[in-house]
Design brief:
The protein is an alpha+beta fold. The protein is built from eight helices and 16 strands. It has two domains: 120 residues, Rossmann fold, CATH 3.40.50; 170 residues, Tumour Suppressor Smad4. Strands 1, 2, 3, 4, 5, 6, 8, 9, 13 and 16 form a ten-stranded mixed sheet that branches. Strands 12-11-10-7-14-15 form a six-stranded antiparallel sheet, covered by helices on one side.
Length: 306
């Protein structure tokens, strides 16, 4: 009999995720489905849990939380995948966190009842997984939604400091604070496909999904199963121009701007010629002062229930 392992982050959604446990238990009981809910206890715990249970027969992993929970489970499943010969791990998502950009990009609705029905009736479809090598992760870190360099990483660090503003509002306030500070941009060489771009960017986004920060459509036309990242680079410019670019990102129209370069590739190399790289992947800090990164797209490495 198939078993569902729900890995739930009790702190997701500012602690509201834990309050949804009775609803989750009732659903699986009502539909006579075997389910075990396991609460994460610390950062990185979901990685270990996902890897362990993915190696067991007739077991489906469910990520219950926000972007951080999904990111850890993707990392655990990728570790398990290396030990499995022909099996591609599949997982589902209950989007009950504050930041649900990954769920949005994977076309998973923000609503527990509908998410549960999708897990019951949906089918696994292929999904690409990104890997970043460098910074604080010389052996690599996986991501499902997107990687940011520069401005949006600094915005995330600012948003994380806020205790009374949450979700997309915290990201918007963090963006304003970062714009006021306006740190200088590093000089980068970015290699993708057969191109090399030398640029001093305010931000670089390398997306498997479409949205970050609940508001900013970094790659509005990205597909999570085409084996390619969508790349977006916006030059530093003036504060006024960067503010204009930020507004364009909320509409997904930044590709129309002269200060923004877009492209697609399955492998990207980023090297800081001067300055350093502040980098996040799915909101997890990869480094605050890196110099060199390789980002690789693993086509159809996992399956996600839709």
């Amino acid at each position: 009999m198939k078993r569902y392992i729900v890995i739930l982050n009790p702190t997701a959604g500012k602690g509201h995720a834990e309050k949804r446990i009775p609803e989750i238990e009732a659903f699986f009981f009502q539909h006579k489905l075997l389910c075990e809910i396991i609460l994460t206890e610390r950062p990185g715990h979901a990685i270990a849990l996902a890897e362990t249970y993915a190696l067991m027969e007739d077991t489906t992993i469910i990520a219950a939380g926000g972007d951080g929970t999904c990111n850890e489970i993707i990392n655990g499943l990728m570790h398990a995948s290396a030990k499995l010969k022909d099996k591609i791990p599949a997982f589902g998502v209950l989007a009950i966190g504050r930041g649900n950009d990954f769920a949005f990009s994977a076309n998973i609705p923000i609503g527990l009842s509908e998410d549960l029905m999708r897990i019951k009736d949906g089918k696994p479809i292929p999904m690409d997984v990104g890997e970043v090598i460098g910074g604080d992760y010389p052996n690599g870190r996986y991501f499902g939604n997107g990687l940011g360099i520069g401005f949006d990483t600094l915005v995330g660090l600012e948003a994380a400091k806020m205790n009374h503003v949450h979700g997309s509002a915290a990201y918007a306030v963090g963006a304003i604070k970062t714009l006021v500070k306006y740190p200088s941009a590093p000089d980068l060489d970015i290699k993708y496909g057969k191109k090399t771009v030398s640029i001093s960017p305010a931000l670089v986004s390398i997306m498997n999904g479409r949205r970050l920060g609940g508001t900013f459509f970094m790659a509005p036309k990205s597909k999570m199963d085409d084996g390619l990242f969508d790349i977006c680079m916006t030059k530093q410019g003036t504060r006024r121009k960067l503010l204009g670019a930020m507004i364009a990102y909320t509409k997904g129209t930044q590709s129309e701007r002269e200060d923004t370069i877009t492209g697609k590739a399955d492998k990207i190399i980023v090297e800081a010629l001067s300055g350093t790289l502040a980098v996040h992947a799915d909101g997890e800090t990869i480094c605050e002062a890196g110099k060199y990164l390789e980002i690789i797209n693993h086509k159809h490495a996992l399956s996600i229930i839709e």
